[in-house]
Amino acid sequence: MDQSVLQNIACLSDSTVHRLHAGQFALASLDWQDTFVGVLLLGISLLTLCVCLILMVKLLHSMLRGRIAVVIKTTVNAEYRFPFSVLVGYIAILLGCIMTILVQSSSIFTSALTPLAGIGVISLERIYPLTLGSNIGTTTTGILAALAADSSRIKHTLQISFCHLFFNVLGILMFYPLPFTRIPIQLAKILGNTTAKYRWFSVLYLICMFLLFPAAVFGLSMAGTVVFMVVLIPLLFVALVVIVVNVLQRKVPHVLPERLRNWLWLPEWMRSLDPLDRAIAAVVGRCGCCQRLCPPQTAHDASAMPTMREVSSQMNFIESRRSSCPSDSQSDLQAFENSAFNWTKDKQNGGATFITQL
């Protein structure tokens, strides 16, 4: 570009206005404001992202079947003897770091792992160190950007990038080396089980954790230190007491008073999500479109699902049959495995029946 043009722009001169022209883009013919165009593009991008994720899950689910799925499960989720069992997690952290450095994005790496966990190929315990490694690998982008800064400012840019690196390293040291400190795994299981029971919980979780909670903390911080501490300290104390009581109820309930061994003495809305679930189901039931898209879950759905003990007994029986069957009866055993878990509609009561066939 001509240097005189830059000088005229810096001096706020109007001599270069005639050289400016509107850029061309896909939605230029709509004659909309930039705000509406941005909202439309945001909606299209989110829809495209969801469609790609759904198609990716379906594609992986169709590809990883039969012997391929068995080989991947036994290889990736293999349990090794000591001392190799200690090194497997750290190798997974290193692998996650390297893969994230190659793709330059931890979001891409974790998004690729999520469908694999959803179809049961990789266990949650194996994904956890891979995700921790991706958090380390994503800091390399900031370090490379800091190294490209001007020599007079490289000190400050490197400080910020290393803060990002050491923050993630400190998180790994806090929540991985010792097995009992791997709290995120248990929290992920709790959130997953809750979302499986209440499908709307995922939306509520995103709204609360990414919108309401940060907005509340920001508002309290703007109100002043005294207001922030007066509100935050009691809330943290109550949350800490509830967490400690829950842990004691599961581990050593006999040390608690009789009343604190369960939460049944509290109102239902304070100890369960069922009241909110019934309210949401009532709202969805009034909307015909929402009812067709999201059929309401009932207690019968949960009762119709097989328990983990039943599924475990089925799998143990299959393994015993596999070890005891001769080679010529493997086809019969495979037919048994394919028909062991089938869902059919019971026409008499309209419910789902779990069928076990021999």
Automatic annotation (TrEMBL):
<protein>
    <submittedName>
        <fullName>Uncharacterized protein</fullName>
    </submittedName>
</protein>
<feature type="transmembrane region" description="Helical">
    <location>
        <begin position="158"/>
        <end position="178"/>
    </location>
</feature>
<dbReference type="GO" id="GO:0005436">
    <property type="term" value="F:sodium:phosphate symporter activity"/>
</dbReference>
<dbReference type="InterPro" id="IPR003841">
    <property type="entry name" value="Na/Pi_transpt"/>
</dbReference>
<keyword id="KW-0472">Membrane</keyword>
<keyword id="KW-1003">Cell membrane</keyword>
<feature type="transmembrane region" description="Helical">
    <location>
        <begin position="226"/>
        <end position="248"/>
    </location>
</feature>
<dbReference type="Pfam" id="PF02690">
    <property type="entry name" value="Na_Pi_cotrans"/>
</dbReference>
<dbReference type="GO" id="GO:0044341">
    <property type="term" value="P:sodium-dependent phosphate transport"/>
</dbReference>
<comment type="similarity">
    <text>Belongs to the SLC34A transporter family.</text>
</comment>
<keyword id="KW-1133">Transmembrane helix</keyword>
<feature type="transmembrane region" description="Helical">
    <location>
        <begin position="36"/>
        <end position="61"/>
    </location>
</feature>
<dbReference type="GO" id="GO:0016324">
    <property type="term" value="C:apical plasma membrane"/>
</dbReference>
<keyword id="KW-0812">Transmembrane</keyword>
<feature type="transmembrane region" description="Helical">
    <location>
        <begin position="198"/>
        <end position="220"/>
    </location>
</feature>
<feature type="transmembrane region" description="Helical">
    <location>
        <begin position="82"/>
        <end position="103"/>
    </location>
</feature>
